[in-house]
Amino acid sequence: MRDVLPGLLVALPLAGAAFLPLLAALSRRTTRVPALALHVAILAAALALFGSVAAGGPIRYALGGWPGPWGIELWLDGLSTLMAVLVSGMACFASFAQAFGSNEDGAARGSTPLREGLLRGALLLLVAGLLGIVATRDVFNLFVFLEISSLAAYTLVASGGGRSTVAAFRYLLAGTAAGSLYLFGVGFLYALTGTLNMDDLASRLPSVEADAALTVAVVLIAVGLSIKAALFPLHGWLPDTYVYTPTPAAGFIAAVMAKVSAYALLRLLGEVLAGTEAGAVVLEVMIWLGVAGVVAGGVLAVAQRAVTRMLAWSSISAMGMILIGVGMGSALAITGALFHMAAHALAKGCLFFGAGGVRARGGGDDVERWAGLGARAPWTFAALTVAALSLIGIPPAAGFFSKYYLLSASIAAGGPEGIASFAAIILSSLLATVYFLRVLEAVWFRAPAEAPDRASSGEPAGPVLPRPLALPVVGLAVLILLTGIFARPFERHVLPDWETGTARIAAEAP
Amino acid sequence: MTEIVSLRPLLAVGAGLAAVLPILLSGRRPALREGWTFLAGAVQLGAALSMLPAALAGAAHVSPALPLLPGMPLQFRADPLGLLFLTLSSILWLATSSYSVGYLRSLGLKHQTGYFAAFAAAVAAAAGVALAANLLTFLIAYEVLTLTTWPLVVHKRTSGVFGSGRSYLAYTLIAGQLLLGAVVWVGMLAPGAQFTPGGFLAGAASDGVLRVLFVLLLVGVGSKAAVFPLHGWLPAAMVAPTPVSALLHAVAVVKAGAFGVLRLTGWVFGPDLMHDLGLSLPLALLAAGTILMASLRALGEDHFKRRLAYSTVSQLSYIVLGGAIGTPLALAGAAFHIVAHGFLKITLFFCAGSVYAATGREHISQLSGLGRAMPFTFAAFAVGALGMAGMPLLPGFISKWNLALGALDDHQVWVVALLVVSGLLNLAYYLPILRIAVFEPGDDRRVREPSPWLVAPPVFAALAAIVLGLAPDAGARFWFLAESAARSVAEHAPEFLTGGLP
User: Fold this and answer.
1) pLDDT-based confidence at residue B502 (cuts at 50, 70, 90)
2) pTM confidence score
3) Residues in chain B closer than 8 A to A412 (CB atoms)
4) Are B347 and B255 in contact (CB under 8 A)?
5) Rounded Cα distance, A110 and A39, in Å
6) Which of B136, B180, B189 best tests the A interface by mutation, with the highest count of A CBs <10 A?
7) Which of A420, B222, B299, B330 has the fewest other C-beta atoms within 10 Å?
8) Higher pLDDT, B328 or B496
9) DSSP-assigned beta bridge partners for residue B62
10) Average pLDDT over chain B, rounded to whole?
């Protein structure tokens, strides 16, 4: 198992991405079942890897049998398998939404089996790219997977037509710039050390003289990945992208896309480049930018009237929190950052599926038009309420625990940046209280506004959101609660790997 | 203290929580729906009473620990103070439930299913606050309590009500976040942060850090306890239906805050450390200021429920005062005042609600003649009012007497003067209500007592108060619990004044 699964984890979605559109074109029938089956298979592989790594330690896997540092290696430890489970699990929900919810989605009206097959292929390709980033141990290979995932994401974002094309173009510009900066940085590193393998890099870097070239390399890599991770003030692409992406893809992209880039930042800056002087400075700057992002994202989320745009700004705030954790780098901080990746992915996915579903059914995006929806779809909105409370940080939902870890890490770190992060995280919870409870108040307690256009056109009441979307929404809410309550195994499996990993790299340094 | 690992604390906390879903699902059959509430209340009370013998023997039931965070489990422990609060809330929950049935039916309020569901969840959260074994568990229950009482506060759903609801949330959730920050901090300084009689923070950090922590924690619990200047939400929250106000004041929110202050002073910092850090006197002065300020505000308030609300602000600061003084008798008096105020204030609110249900009147100046038309209700009201003022033979006297003795142990003579003045102020704002109701002629001869559902609960609560005043240790052994809670704190503070308790 251990010698097949890592390759399969990346190969399966890649092959599926090519196979599904072909199948759709040849059979001219819907491909929803094969697509869903593929995603479930990928999730199964990720879960098996997680279990195997937890039981038997990290796995090093040489692609094509070429060992590192010459060949490309995959490296699966607690950290990367956790991310793989998160990505493939969210992909299952998105695929389900895509398969059964999309026929009511305005964006996909008049779609043909071929077009659907292509979009499903794009989702698989996105998953392949993200899983590749998570698993690879090669900095250039990481660039390749970054581009694969970005291209697939542009397609999915643009598939809504209209404004989403503009959003996709904007995302493309930012993403291309990010990719290029990262590639330049990798080029510098290669010129300095002559290697692309992360372990090899980490062991050779200490003997490299700390000169301007190394600083430039570190900064380029950090800026490139920070754009993809929407670190404030490099977040410009995010709000429009999240708002205008069609629902199934929005739920997935909002949940995991930026987080995988944050994971790459953690791998490269927190582990491989941690020993360099520039790396240490960049990490400290990242804490401060994270603090700024946490506050700015929260304040701007309060200012929004549209639910999806509010959620998008709340994501910028959340990414700030994650990057604070990455920047601090202590075991507590990394736990908090990882936990928040999971907690936020589950909650944001849930909320975007819900908000997108309401919008797709003509319910509008404005907070005021959500008035009274709770009574019409109690289960769905109870689930959305759980997600919102988790993001505010109310126990026992998962979001509470990530904040707890990050607050502890801030206190342990001390100093000005510790105090600033502590205050920012508390403030962000308060701001989240303001913007989420405004929505919850409307949903549960306010009477629905009389919409004259609806009354006159005699539009049937119907379900509030496409019924199939209720399943991912409710399922994710249950996962949020379970993650919160049964979180200890998470810490037990993921952290030791991280600590031994960084300790190993530190030990290899002369 | 011997610990018995058992599931009973979980049963006590889980009963209300488990009732939420059945209540929501039986919305179309009101009789069944209310049946779930009463069943859960009975289970909770049964669980509480079943843990009493262990407490009498000096042991405590402890639930198995669910590890949530490193060194910080979710755990419930039925120590004397927790058991006292738990027993009180289950008794008053049952009383309030039967009152709610009559109140909601006679006024024909909407959304009754959501009401009973939120009520059950809120009481479960209050039970969680009562039995929390450490700060993390306390924080979780405390936040859940805030959120589950919010739907109850905004139950009437008009725009003014939403404003009050937002003010309620603003105070309590901001305080909750400060509490979160403080809990994290304490968790870093003292792993586990388990409530320990006599406190566990001594020597854990520099004096300055400990003072900052104290302020953060105090704001966290003090805003629910409506300590001045954090009391603004409480009069505003009077927009809630009366049974909700009764619950908020007697058991759930405000009382949970006062309970939190006692936990903070006696079980986190401890009287020793409070004195060493110079925190006792400022806190006592803050409580004294709150007592006087709220009493004066109550004098000028014509709205019936808001006058009661200011009275609560004032009365709960007795509990804060007892926690601040920290001598054994003062702590016992404060703990007993949780019970005394619970029974008395719920009586008063029930009476205000009955008046509203029978006549629609909300202001004190409109009460003329009602005393003769509604004799049972106003008899109960008289018991509640006199008890609040500290009349001997009623439970309010026992708590104030012990508070005064405890203050004298610490040579704080001014506290006695404060208690006398405040008692007079209590009379000054309660007696006019009785005078107007009983001696002024009424204009409406058709007013009668409302349905028995609305008359029985206040009469029951008033009778219970009388029994409690005559025999404070009868039945649920409230005085014993209060005294042994205070004794446990005193035992762990050997250098400190331990006079008073036999």
Assistant:
1) very low
2) 0.87
3) 188
4) no
5) 25
6) B180
7) B299
8) B328
9) B5, B77
10) 87
- Residues, chain B, total? 502
Cα gap A416→B223, rounded to integer Å: 29
- For residue A58, give both structure tokens: 């990290």
For residue A95 the two structure tokens come to 């695929």
Question: For strand A59-62 and strand A73-76, is the pairing parallel, antiparallel, or unpaired?
Answer: antiparallel
B210 to chain A, minimum CA–CA distance in Å?
14
Residues A88 and A16: their CA atoms lie apart, in Å, by 14
Interface residue of A368, A411, A431, A483 to substitute, partner B, most B CBs within 10 Å: A411
* Res A497: pLDDT: 60
Cβ(B6)–Cβ(B63) below 8 Å: yes
Q: What distance in Å separates the CA atoms of residue B480 and residue B501, rounded to the nearest whole number?
A: 12
Residue at token pair 């409307």 = A442
- List the single best residue of A391, A407, A438, A483 to mutate versus B (max B Cβ within 10 A): A407
| Of residues A112, A118, A133, the one with CA closest to residue A29 | A112
Q: Do B162 and A491 touch (CB under 8 A)?
A: no
**Side-chain-facing half-sphere of B274: CA atoms under 13 Å:** 32
B79 and B1 Cβ atoms separated by less than 8 Å: yes
Report the b/e string of A325-362 with b at 16+ CB within 10 A: bbbbbebbbbbbbbbbbbbbbbbbbbbbbbbbbbbbbe
Residue of A396, A405, A422 with shortest CB distance to B140: A396
The complex's ipTM works out to 0.83
Judged by a CB distance cut-off of 8 A, whether residue B185 touches chain A is yes
Size of interface A-B (CB pairs under 8 A): 65
Residues A71, A64: Cα–Cα separation, whole Å: 8
User: Confidence band (pLDDT; 50, 70, 90) for A494?
Assistant: low
Per-residue pLDDT reduced to its tens digit, A117-133 = 888 889 999 999 999 99
Query: Any idea where the domains of chain B sit in the sequence?
Result: 2-491
Nearest of B415, B414, B386 to residue B401 by alpha carbon: B415
